[in-house]
Amino acid sequence: MKPSKILFSIVMISALMLGACVPAQSPTEPYPVDETEEPSNNEPGEITDSSGDVAYIVDPQADPEAVRQLAQSNNGFALALYQALRDQDGNLIYSPYSIFQALLMTAAGAEGATASQMASVLGVDLNNPEIHNLMNALNKALTTQPEYLQSDAQPLTFNIANAVWAQKDFHFEQSFLDTLSANYNAGLKLVDFNKPEDARALINLWVAAQTNDKIQELIPEGLLDQMTRMVLTNAIYFKGAWSNQFEEKDTEDGSFTLLDGSSKTVPFMHGNFTLSALVSDKIQAIRLPYEGGTYAMAAIMPLENFAEFEAQLTAADLEQLLNSLQSSSAMVDLSMPKFKSESRFGLGEILAGLGMPDAFDAQKADFSGMTGKPDLMISSVLHQATIDVNEEGTEAAAATAVAMSLTSMPGQSYTIRLDKPFIYVIYETTTNTITFMGRVVNP
């Protein structure tokens, strides 16, 4: 097997739009960050860069077990979302890590019952003063190249960028801004949401730049308005190569069985590899590693009753599967379909149903940790993701928008053909942190 030349790109973007949560017909007057400041002369479309008073912590110190527990919280959230999203028709792709981090940044300004509900949904302790430092440490774990790699190894890139877009004449608590700057490297950019289309264009340009133009329209027209007060953006970019290469000449058409029992002809990639694999009378699973780092794709195909399998899948089940794949090794004659899929959905009702309804309720939302008063609520959460898997690798992009308004040697050999619906995850193997998750039911 020759080294892979395939490039794998994942983009995860999260954006949180914040505004005031009082009823639109009777808004409160914005109040300035510093009453002694001279009024800003920025024209619409201009940006003033600022930051919190605390510099970004480039080398966060954290208990490795606590970091791993945060990764497990992310994975629990990933499975909870999967169970909430699986009733949708067709293929599915989303980034739980993007959504998880976006909500944790938002939770930095939550108080009272709102904070308790968000903590429960995310599976974290927001009263733990180290929680955001742990997020920083997990980000570092996911973006640090292993020291044991040989100098000629294909490099793997995993970058994370954050920014805070704030209304230029609106007050935000310094402690909230400091938390984001210290732990998320989120610089403060002052814009004018009184001209929302100008602000939307600026934010979308930043997102496009961070994602190599994979996400060009994260914030749709009309999502921002004059009640918007803040947008938090999180962009994650991943680029790597398969450790084992699929040869394009070996790709052939084959039959894939759909959920209704019918079949369709799709192109299947093929290769003979030494891989981690699990085969039983119930499932077939493989792990495809990426060179130059600690990332892999795992594909899990139940042999019977896909709907029942996914309905019963838990975070503990998936953790056990990933751990088992870490320790197994076999010669695998592998066929898997090329596929593309795209998902776009609103998450507001889903997140409220998972246990954080107060964040979406103008009368109950409490994000006073952001502004010093409970005047913000989440009005909508949007998520969009795309993935393309072929011989040359994998490209994926995801975006989340949370809008807030005023108120060993092989001992086995297998032939595995992923020709039925299967679930897949892309994850970091030392922490098992799931960065992307989805299913293929119709390649």
Question: What would you say this structure looks like, in words?
Answer:
By secondary structure, this protein is an alpha+beta fold. The protein has two domains: about 10-25 and about 60-240 and about 340-405, Antithrombin, subunit I, domain 2 (Antithrombin, Chain I, domain 2), CATH 3.30.497; about 245-340 and about 410-440, Roll (Alpha-1-antitrypsin, domain 1). Helix content is about 25%, strand content about 35%. It has helices spanning about 65-85, 95-105, 110-120, 130-145, 175-185, 195-210, 305-310, 315-325, 350-355, 370, and strands at about 10-20, 50, 90-95, 155-165, 185-190, 230-240, 250-255, 265-280, 285-290, 295-300, 330-335, 340-345, 375-390, 395-405, 410-415, 420-430, 435-440. The protein has a 17-stranded mixed beta sheet that branches. Strand 9 (about 285-290) and strand 10 (about 295-300) form a beta hairpin. Mean pLDDT is about 80; it is low at about 1-15 and about 20-45.
How would you briefly describe this protein structure?
With 443 residues, the chain is an alpha+beta fold. The protein has helices at 64-85, 96-107, 112-122, 131-143, 174-184, 196-210, 306-312, 315-327, 348-354, 368-371, and strands at residues 8-19, 48-50, 92-94, 157-167, 187-191, 228-242, 252-257, 263-279, 283-291, 295-302, 330-337, 339-346, 376-390, 393-406, 412-417, 422-428, 433-440.
